[in-house]
Specification:
83% of the residues lie in helices and 0% in strands. With 103 residues, the protein is mainly α. The longest helix is centred in the middle third of the chain and has 36 residues. The radius of gyration is 20 Å and the shape is elongated. The model has no long low-confidence stretch (mean pLDDT 82).
Length: 103
Amino acid sequence: MKKWTIVLVALVAVMLIAPSAFAQDEARAVGGGKGLMAIAAGFGMASGSVCGALGQGRIASAACEGMARNPGAAAAIRAAMILGLVFVETLALFTLVIIFVKI
């Protein structure tokens, strides 16, 4: 439980510090602040890709286990698996689109 407390405190600290990053006038910012936005976009896409890959792995693992336990329901399980994979991949693509829009 202590690990989650540390993560929660770190998240709150980041949320309190984040507004000060945008307090500077964009005209006076060095380079318009695009360098930091590019770094943030890289971290955002990396976290979106990692979470999407973990989700897809869990979906495929559960589907394979379900098909192995009940081969008669393989078609229904496969259809549900493909639908779940589409949703996860769509979220990853939305992350990419949002990052390019914000830069």
